[in-house]
Amino acid sequence: MIDVSIALHIPDGFLSGGVALACGLLAIVAVGYGLRVANVELDEARVPLLGVLAAFIFAAQMLNFPIAGGTSGHFLGATLAAVLLGPWLACLVMAVVIAVQAFAFADGGISALGANVLNMGVLGALLAGLAVGAAMKVVPDRRGAFLSVVGVVSWLAVMIGATATSFELALSDTIPLATSLPPMLGVHALIGIGEAVITVAAVSAVLVSRPDLVALAPEELRRPLAAPAAQPVGGEA
Amino acid sequence: MGRIPTGVFVALALALAVGLATAVSPFASASPDGLEKVAGDKQFLDEGRLAGVQEDSPIPDYAFPGIENERVATGLAGFVGTLAVFAIGFGLAWVLRRRGPAAGGSGAAAA
């Protein structure tokens, strides 16, 4: 039998036609809106960023790390993409990654493509868009606080993806929710820690090198370090 | 520390991505991951199957075809895949990009 490599990647055969279709429609709406947002917001300077972010997420998803009990997990990337590009462009980035994985690498199903984009991309990206903004209204506009929020949200994004996957499997009559949800959440609670570590590391690297590229960071943090407003010409690095 | 030019930033990030996918992925854990593990434990893994178009996917299961050494096959798959994803993402963004000046003005100030 062909070795079907999964992940949170659902292969064909796990979902019923109805569930796959419903997830596909939701994914199309989100990605379609992402296309529109790109038309309005994506300036020429950020074009290569979208490409390189997709490439980085693809690469990082290949790096399965071992977790407890002969299981591995890998980075998903929706929170990273949302923090850097905003939630809607993040949906687009995740759709590119997951579609290439399905068509070129046979990783994740074709009829399940919408569900995979939804679970690993859209849900996490939209969660990050909402939760990071909301949390930053409560915590101080400092680097440490922002990175902590990003870490927690990226963990939550993985848990939401795992939860959605369990619901889709249950609605498809593949496995009851009560059977799949506890182990899915248990495994992904650990995978989420890896997600948080990688996301925080990547976001802090961008904050150091190009803070202006961190779309969801508070305005204060997006300015280059130690460059208050009234610098005259010549103070550039 | 300040800002590095966008071109340099992109080149460094792409080099990191290609490096990870090529040199590190061959040594990644081969254990079943999250859903795969649960599917195996709960006896529904066998319901998974490849779609028709995936029978002819160019690099099935992240192993570059025709190469016996598994690590080399995976590394090459990572190399090719990362560059392909970059090209597709870049191309899509280029096609979709905003033409003309900003409508809302957000982000323009930072440039």
Description:
The complex is a heterodimer of chains A (237) and B (111). Helix content of chain A is 67%, strand content 3%. Chain A has helices at residues 17-41, 47-61, 78-85, 87-105, 113-138, 143-171, 177-209, 219-222, and strands at residues 65-67, 71-73. In chain A, strands 1-2 form a two-stranded antiparallel sheet. In chain A, β1 (65-67) and β2 (71-73) form a beta hairpin. The termini of chain A are far apart. Chain B has a domain at 64-97. In chain B, 49% of the residues lie in helices and 0% in strands. At the A-B interface, α1, α2, β2, α4 and α6 of A face α1, α2 and α3 of B.
- Taking the alpha carbons of the first and last residues of chain A, their distance comes to 58 Å
The residue ranges of chain B in which pLDDT falls below 50 over 5 or more consecutive positions are: 104-111
The biggest beta sheet of chain A reads: 2 strands, antiparallel
Residue share in helices of chain B? 40-55%
Level-1 CATH class name of chain A: Mainly Alpha
Question: What distinguishing features does this structure have?
Answer:
A: mainly alpha; Arp2/3 complex 21 kDa subunit ARPC3; two-stranded antiparallel ribbon; 67% helix; disordered N terminus; B: 111 residues; mainly alpha; 0% strand; disordered C terminus
Topology of this structure?
The complex is a heterodimer of chains A (237) and B (111).
Chain A: H1 17-41, H2 47-61, E1 65-67, E2 71-73, H3 78-85, H4 87-105, H5 113-138, H6 143-171, H7 177-209, H8 219-222
Antiparallel strand pairs in A: 1-2
Chain B: H1 6-24, H2 34-41, H3 70-96
Helix pairs in contact in B: 1-3
